Amino acid sequence: MQISYISTQTTTASNAQLTPPQCLDKLMDRKEIGFYKLTEMNNLWSQTEQIGETFANKFKHFIWVGIGGSSLGPKAMVGALKVNHIQVLENPDIQTLLAAKKKFPSFKNVGFVFVSKSGTTIETLATLDFFSQELATENLQLKNQTVVITELKASSLYDWAKTNGAPILEIPLNVGGRFSVLSSIGQLVIKLCKLNLGEFRHGAESALKTEYKERTLFPMAQFFMESFKRKDVLSYFWYYSDSAFLLGKWLEQLWAESLAKRESPLYVATAPIASLGANDQHSILQQMMETQLGKTVVVHRFKSSEEHDYQLKTTQFPETSVLKNRPLSHLLKIEAQAMTESQKESKNPVCEIKFDKLDEFALGQYFMTYQLIVGMMGEFMQIDAFNQPGVELGKIITKKLLTQ
Amino acid sequence: MQISYISTQTTTASNAQLTPPQCLDKLMDRKEIGFYKLTEMNNLWSQTEQIGETFANKFKHFIWVGIGGSSLGPKAMVGALKVNHIQVLENPDIQTLLAAKKKFPSFKNVGFVFVSKSGTTIETLATLDFFSQELATENLQLKNQTVVITELKASSLYDWAKTNGAPILEIPLNVGGRFSVLSSIGQLVIKLCKLNLGEFRHGAESALKTEYKERTLFPMAQFFMESFKRKDVLSYFWYYSDSAFLLGKWLEQLWAESLAKRESPLYVATAPIASLGANDQHSILQQMMETQLGKTVVVHRFKSSEEHDYQLKTTQFPETSVLKNRPLSHLLKIEAQAMTESQKESKNPVCEIKFDKLDEFALGQYFMTYQLIVGMMGEFMQIDAFNQPGVELGKIITKKLLTQ
Q1: Which of A47, A259, B97, B196 is 20 to 30 A from A135 in CA distance terms?
Q2: Domain layout of chain A by residue ranges
Q3: Which residues 167-196 of A have a C-beta within 8 angstroms of B?
């Protein structure tokens, strides 16, 4: 990831403001926070390397079951890496479960991954019950084709794996669910794709290198800080690549759950909106350009979608004649450029970020970068970016209604 | 669609306000606006009935090419109707086009639909060039397996269809792109799914019946009007069904492009956010519950996902024991109820809408209902809901960069 253009409006606020390096220092002073130390946990990586290797070789297809932090990262990775042998199931929608069942004539060649940090997530456990029952109709035992990812402490999911002898991969206690994509969760996805785990780790590590901090991390953080100081209400994250779009859906959760807290003495977090270019230039762009609601725009661009060599030999229309003798991918590239240019001309704050490749390294770097930025923004806002008080009421009501 | 619960905060504003019936009257006084008269255009429906019937029987798979208003409705319908023989291609991302090519060993059994209201959309035309070239490598001619949907007036797409003898289905001149899902566009999707076109039409008609207006349309419009008077900035549209979620993405465009205009003397349009329940209860719910940004919440519930009879014979966890002797779909139902309940308790304005079925009729009614509401909100805001000034700058810059 490298910033290729950035422009913002600097805002002076009366209160003393923390700078990006100060925010990072404050974040790293919080000894109870573990996500940025994941790269140093050798045991974790070698465990996934071993268990993942065996598991990846044993099955042809994989069904990944989790919700929220246990599914958004894996879904984004599966999309970005363009693999189709891993299906991520999130919602306990019976229509979706039955469709997944219909997809396979037999579950014989399917490996299952059940992920719940707490080990008590009802949607995930109900889906485990569902597959137990379905595999039993084939005389298969779910426990023999499953890996579990959870915290190493007693819980429904942990106990199930222990009792049934299913391998367990660990999410460390000091790593929050939405900050867990670089734990065994993302690591196992890399292994199931038979890719290089070391590169994923190096990518994550690279986000904390001095030069990267100065050239990318701090300027990005500063960009968002100015936005919060201006009291913006929307942050648009644009992805110019179909396969990369789900990286934005992962970011939406990270941003919204971490930063939207009532307790902030100074700021209200922006609502994050992941957008797909050029698609959404035909849908929500109007709002972005015209609304009087304050906003920032981040444009993510990918060489893989902008520099493919496929060419049209003949073009049939005045509109497409400009593509003659140019790769077809030129069109998406131009549309991405036009997005940044139009933001410049409209004087909207914009940050453009380029990706040379969308591989294991880039994913590790992307995840670590935004996790650090969100953590830093939490320090900037003087809130706890690592709790989620607002989702509790819904959980309590669900539990009450379920037991009635 | 019927409202099962609605609660809002009434706001008095000093300016004289239009009521929902007055807004509807004003909308219908605009003779240049055609979308709500589509159901009366007999020729359009019988033409789609005939051309669609032949086309649907001729091919096994279909590739639908369009972007924005030409793709969001079809995508939502394909999702809602749970068919998998229609693939919608929107983005000119070369990676996606090559993946679509790889999916079919031959294009022999594939019918193509190219949709562009203006007939000049570069993304759609470039994709047409792409498939022309690819079919030619198989000695197939694209024109022999294509239906075109566009306005009946000279344009690149219209001229191509005329010259090559491909059937043309019409988008009337007085129907805007994002308001066109009930035109030949949605109609052809129904035919390709071999469903009942008459029911789709009846559904659309039903939204203008007196009883429906009084029980559903006007209360919904009033709900949003209060929201705009309060100067809310976010409208969350929740869908409790995986297959229905894309109805929300369709609505996002309709809402954002129609209502986000600088010209409004009184109001700023909310940013629409389509959310998937229960999934997003594990992601963006925190922001919705905790943010100090003003918001409204609409919860859409579907019997098909809440009342399926699949049961778990055994449950293995304390958390899932409550599902014993109840259908598994009970879980999603309870989560939807919990969402509405938690909004009530938090005193957030909420509107809950139920769908008995998600069939042709329901789709027609859904599309017409929200199109009317958005049109009415335009009148309420004193803006033109049918133009899109904000997307022009991007288009101009794209054109400039392309011809450099």
Answers
A1: A47
A2: 2-30+203-381, 42-171
A3: none
